[in-house]
Structures are given as structure tokens and as C-alpha cells.
């Protein structure tokens, strides 16, 4: 089993930055692709970003491309999401997820394990 815990969320003004962390415990995530999703109130859970287990390839939703950066430190069993130029529409609960070893996924059902989420609120 893999347990994931997100941290780093909070309240920030539009144009600001936040860095989310996703720390894994239990089994290692170093051989798993990882992803970030977000869910705004009343909306579906949407794909944000993903990274291969090596960190060599990444994928981003168009809405965050150029503003968000996903990275990982396999030695620390941790994945990050650096968010810059934040907009009010980025307000959501952000979840990290652990997937299989190969490839990158944009759909929730591709991932095997999920964290509980961390709230990000961007004020205008």
C-alpha cells in the first residue's frame, strides 16, 4: 500500500505562488508515475499535471501549462507542484495520485492511490 499526504496549500493572492508537496509512505513511489488533480466545488476532478517515474517526461493541462511545474525527488519519496501566476480559477482542492510504472495518465481511473487533498484558494 502507498499512503500519500499533500501539504503546502493555503490562501494566496492572484499572481502569487505556492508549492505543493506530496509525501509518500508505506511503499516507495520511485517506480510509479505520479499526477496532480484538482477539484473545485461542484465540479469534477480534473487533471493538472503528471510526471513519469524517472522524471524525464511531464504532461500538463492546457490551463496550467507555463505556470505550473511538476517535479519529484525519488530519494525523498516526494512529488511537488510549483504553482506560479495563480488565478482565482485555480482555487480547488489539489490531490496527488500514484499510478503504474509506465506512461502518463490524464484520467482518474489510471491512478491507483490518492491523497486526501490540500485546499488552494486564490483571491482576486
Describe this protein with a few key phrases.
124 residues, mainly beta, four-stranded antiparallel beta sheet, 0% helix, globular
Secondary-structure blueprint:
Blueprint (H helix, E strand, L loop, with lengths): L1 E6 L2 E4 L4 E9 L7 E6 L5 E7 L6 E3 L7 E6 L4 E6 L8 E7 L14 E2 L3 E6 L1
Parallel strand pairs: 2-11
Antiparallel strand pairs: 1-3, 3-8, 4-5, 4-9, 5-6, 7-8, 9-10, 9-11
Give a short account of the largest sheet.
7 strands, mixed
Which ranges are low-confidence, i.e. pLDDT below 50, for 5 or more consecutive residues? none
- Helix fraction? under 10%
N to C succession of SSEs: EEEEEEEEEEE
Please give a structural write-up:
The chain is an all-beta fold and 124 residues long. Helix content is 0%, strand content 50%. It has no helices and eleven strands. The protein has strands at 2-7, 10-13, 18-26, 34-39, 45-51, 58-60, 68-73, 78-83, 92-98, 113-114, 118-123. The strands form two sheets. Strands 2, 4, 5, 6, 9, 10 and 11 form a seven-stranded mixed β-sheet that branches. The chain has a four-stranded antiparallel β-sheet with strand order 1-3-8-7, with no helix packed on it.
In short:
This protein is an all-beta fold and about 120 residues long.
Amino acid at each position: 500500500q502507498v499512503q500519500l499526504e499533500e501539504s503546502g496549500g493555503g490562501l494566496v493572492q492572484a499572481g502569487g505562488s505556492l508549492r505543493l508537496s506530496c509525501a509518500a509512505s508505506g511503499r516507495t513511489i520511485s517506480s510509479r508515475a505520479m499526477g496532480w488533480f484538482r477539484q473545485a466545488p461542484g465540479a469534477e476532478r480534473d487533471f493538472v499535471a503528471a510526471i513519469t517515474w524517472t522524471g524525464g517526461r511531464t504532461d500538463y493541462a492546457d490551463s496550467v501549462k507555463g505556470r505550473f511545474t511538476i517535479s519529484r525527488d525519488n530519494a525523498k519519496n516526494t512529488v511537488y507542484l510549483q504553482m506560479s501566476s495563480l488565478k482565482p480559477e485555480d482555487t480547488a482542492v489539489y490531490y496527488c495520485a500514484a499510478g503504474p510504472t509506465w506512461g502518463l495518465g490524464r484520467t482518474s481511473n489510471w491512478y491507483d492511490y490518492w491523497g486526501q487533498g490540500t485546499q488552494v484558494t486564490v483571491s482576486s
